[in-house]
Design goal:
32% of the residues lie in helices and 21% in strands. By secondary structure, it is α/β, with parallel strands linked by helices. It is an enzyme of class 2 (transferase).
Length: 464
Amino acid sequence: MSQNPPNLRPDLAPRIRVDEPARPGQPKIGMVSLGCPKALVDSERILTRLRAEGYAISPDYTGAEAVIVNTCGFLDSAKAESLEAIGEALKENGKVIVTGCLGAEPDYITGVHPKVLAVTGPQQFEQVLDAVHGAVPPSPDPFIDLMPAQGVKLTPRHYSYLKISEGCNHKCKFCIIPDMRGRLASRPAHAILRETEKLLEAGVREILMISQDTSAYGLDRKHDLSPWKGGEVRAHITDLTREMGKMVKDADAWLRLHYVYPYPHVRDLIPLMAEGLALPYLDIPFQHAHPDVLKRMARPAASAKTLDEIAAWRADCPEIVLRSTFIVGYPGETEEEFQYLLDWMDEAKLDRVGCFQYENVDGARSNDLPDHVDAEVKQDRWNRFMEKAQEISEAKLQAKVGTLQQVIVDEIDEEGATCRTRADAPEIDGNLFIDEGFEALSVGDMVTVEVDEASDYDLWGRLV
């Protein structure tokens, strides 16, 4: 079935093509894009935002739970074509949201098709998304969708994950990501910068840079140069962060870095944070601290000088917040090695910490290591580790009582606003709650609060 009926008009863009299978249970939205290339770009923006919220996209009505028709109002024949496409969508699907140029004449559309769910004008992306939410609520799965098929992003409207590379060159014994995703494959710098630009133009307030190994970005490309804005940008994490940071700072948005291995050149990122080009936040998967455990893990970075690096980062950027994840009960881990990790935590005093008990993964080389740790011992070590992490977190958050913090609003309900500080990434870190005077706030707002209460992992504050 053709969604763009054959037409000899030279202003028509090619029909959209989508070839991405949906995961089980993923809501699917169809898109009919009519009109010129400018309308096609608008359709691409809508699709990008829908993908960012966990929707699958259908190039036709098949299997779609609702259909968006991006209309053209250039000529009467284009209007007629748009009305025909709306009618066909209603017949084939029943749930239709209309946008685009003809949407500027809502009465014209509803006079012919009163059963459409919503009519929005050109470039009214937020209204389109609201209508989609009303018809088909999003159902994201962060454990699957954070590393999905290329182009899919999983976020609410005000923040977005931006993947700068795929794959990984490391051979950590407990990890099978390189087997699933292949070796490091970095995107060209100009493509990432262009996506950054588009996300900011679409109203995204926070961009979260992700990959399997963010610090290795561009290594596979031999740090080649890309043309950008009359100059050139090197495919290197420092240069990329600087250029992205300039755009994000100009847009009064945030740039947050995830999955950064502690290579020596990471220290070059810290001055950029001190300048405000990126949030003073590093997500670094240390995994352990004892050098023998790290050797058995085949980790790419030794820990001998990690504490010195952390001290240097904090000296250059006192605001910096460090998040990491650790594995306890790795095969062969002794009580002495685990206690070494606890002592290291006392010195490092990381701000945000996650911890996992080691488990065999089908295909991982660590399965064959000797001296696997008993389940009861792993549980005990996990409890002790989390008690230590909680103690450190509580002290750090108590120190923030009485301070002013910039926060971004994630959710609002009848009880208050759920926000995040610059020190908190979505889903994995803590929250700051505002339970008084929040009625005028909207999701995505950035406001300043005074912290008046702290718990182990969360803060409470009031607007100032």
